[in-house]
Amino acid sequence: MTRQTLRVASYNIRKAIGTDRRRKPDRILAVLSEIDADIVALQEADRRFGPRVAALPPLLIDHHSDYRAVPLNVQTDSIGWHGNAILVRKSAEIRMSDIIHLPYLEPRGAVVAEIAFANDFALRLYGMHLDLSGLWRRRQAAALLKRYARAPRMPTIMMGDLNEWRPDSGCLLDFGRFFHFAPCGKSFPSRGPLGQLDRIMLNKRTELIDCGVHDSPLARRASDHLPIWADLRMK
Questions:
Q1: Domain limits, the chain
Q2: How much is the pLDDT for 91?
Q3: How far apart are CA 168 and CA 145, in angstroms?
């Protein structure tokens, strides 16, 4: 079978509140249309307080994009778990989805899904938004890697907002024992990126073709993070 390629992206959408302090979920969808990824891991995809309703309403996603949210079935009117959500093409098959409880100083979690495309081409994806505390980030990385070690081997991607400012230290060392990092570049803050907080990590069954930060005029207004992307081929 010819090895298939796909594009993945990770985007902290800041509850759809832009740098102009306006909440515009349609603007987030417009940025996603610019990137044109097959799978997107979102962070801060739900509002923080109250019932934590989706910052990107499911009907808006359905009617104005080629995506659907991976079902997690844990919160009414939400597409995520502690703000983490995964969007996939409507043509994709979702074979498994689950939430992952993480140790935390402040409430955090992660999500995982197995997604298949044409010709039975499948991968596993973890989406995450890690703690502001370095100690808790390392504990959360350990919990995610423990979950990864129990899973059957297949092409696997971990991505999200790791909140790690220091290069080659902290939780990056932990993830780096099992994954290699796509060198996407600096993505925060969106108006003048200084930090490489957002990361895409690949196991040995994935091959990186290209990657980058999506820095468009619209993306600079839509959130305080710029989205990152990677084009991949499965081995």
A1: 5-187+194-234
A2: 95
A3: 17
d(CA 105, CA 121): 38
DSSP string, 185-217: ---BSTTS--B--EEEEE-TTEEEEEEEE---H
The edge-to-edge listing of strands for the beta sheet with 109-117 is 93-101, 109-117, 121-129, 156-161, 198-202, 180-181
Alpha helices in 66-216 (DSSP H): 134-150, 171-176
How far apart are the C-alpha atoms of 5 and 234, rounded to whole Å?
A: 7
Residue with tokens 């074979």: 95
Q: Give the CA radius of gyration of the chain.
A: 16
User: Which H or E run contains 93?
Assistant: strand 93-101
Q: Is the pLDDT of residue 75 over 80?
A: no
Question: What is the CATH code of the structural domain delimited by 5-187+194-234?
Answer: 3.60.10.10
Determine the residue type at 190.
S
- Over range 213-226, report the average pLDDT: 98
**Least confident residue range of 34-38, 45-49, 79-83, 208-212:** 45-49
- Cβ atoms 67, 88 nearer than 8 A: yes
202, HSE (Cβ side, Cα atoms, 13 Å): 22
Q: Tell me: pLDDT of 4 over 90.
A: no
Is the Cα dihedral 218, 214, 187, 71 positive or negative?
positive
Confidence of residue 41 (pLDDT cuts 50, 70, 90): very high
This prediction's pTM: 0.95
pLDDT in tens, 168-193: 889 999 999 999 999 999 999 999 99
Residue linked to tokens 């400012």:
165
